[in-house]
Specification:
Blueprint: E1 16-18, E2 21-23, E3 27-30, H1 37-47, E4 51-55, H2 70-73, E5 80-84, H3 91-104, E6 110-113, H4 126-138, E7 142-147, H5 151-160, E8 164-167, H6 181-189, E9 196-198, H7 204-212, E10 217-220, H8 222-225, H9 230-250
Parallel strand pairs: 3-4, 3-10, 4-5, 6-7, 7-8, 9-10
Antiparallel strand pairs: 1-2
Length: 270
């Protein structure tokens, strides 16, 4: 009988480490744009997400007493809450928002920094982003930073001390998928911190491609919340991220311009 040990070999133990904390899930999800908090909870659970990002300027996590609180359905004991600075257009606004979040979350230092450049494309203002990142790192924050897919900028943000760098795949909410995989590969190959694709994913295959390129994770909101069935899409995204990561670890075959027989003729009897 043949040796099936290779077929049955377990996938290597593989974890995502951000700011010293270990996670088994590499799919990070947003909490906005769902029809209600119950759908938010169901989709988050279907995605298997352990890190959930929250727009402090749009979502109640305790700053508005008496109104529905996201933390009631996604408790910090079960999920790592990642407050973000969505809607900020200056470094000063972003830093102020992060400090508010830290106060609301009892000294929680992990934050997602995004400083936008304009309302139409929601592209990051990289000058303001750099400025805010420097201020936040000096203030003791663990900064996961949303940025363009510029490899030089990504390296600079890492050197500042950001805990993770999160380049866009395409504009926020566009669903266009990965538009410049060569820039992403350049960022990944030169990084010593986690690289997480943030923005632009539209469907499961986009998430799988990001992971196959070697990204450490994918963060998404609109692709799930805007789907016809958000909970079903969340499950699809979970499988896609897991499959893409396993494919990356397994190592794909080289691309060739010609066929290679699955069953070679050499050694055929007769």
């Amino acid at each position: 009988m043949g040796d099936n040990s290779a077929m049955n070999a377990p996938v290597p133990t593989d974890s995502l480490v951000i700011a010293g904390k270990t996670y088994s899930s590499r799919l990070l999800t947003g909490t906005g744009k769902f029809k209600d908090l119950e759908e938010t909870r169901l989709a988050t659970e279907a995605a298997g997400a352990q890190i959930v990002t929250v727009a402090i300027r749009r979502t109640n996590i305790g700053q508005i007493p008496g109104e529905p609180n996201l933390l009631d359905v996604l408790p910090p004991e079960r999920f790592t809450i990642l407050p973000n600075t969505a809607g900020c257009y200056t470094a000063e606004d972003a830093v102020r928002t992060c400090r508010l979040a830290r106060e609301l979350l009892d000294g929680h230092n992990l934050t997602k920094l995004e400083v936008l450049g304009d309302q139409k494309t929601l592209y990051p203002d990289v000058i303001q982003t750099l400025k805010a990142a420097e201020l936040l790192v000096k203030d003791g924050f663990d900064v996961m930073v949303y940025t363009s897919d510029d490899p030089i900028l990504a390296k600079r943000l890492e050197e500042i001390g950001c805990a993770a760098v999160m380049p866009l795949a395409a504009p926020i909410g566009s669903g266009l998928g990965i538009q410049n995989k060569y820039n992403l590969i350049e960022i990944i190959e030169n990084a010593k911190v986690p690289i997480i694709v943030d923005a632009g994913v539209g469907t499961a295959s986009d998430a799988a491609i990001a992971m196959e390129l070697g990204c450490d994770g994918v963060l998404m909101n609109t692709a799930i919340a805007g789907a016809r069935n958000p909970v079903l899409m969340a499950g699809a995204m979970r499988k896609a991220v897991e499959a893409g990561r396993e494919a990356f670890l397994a190592g794909r075959i080289p691309r060739k311009r010609y066929a290679s027989a699955s069953s070679p003729l050499e050694g055929v009897i007769g």
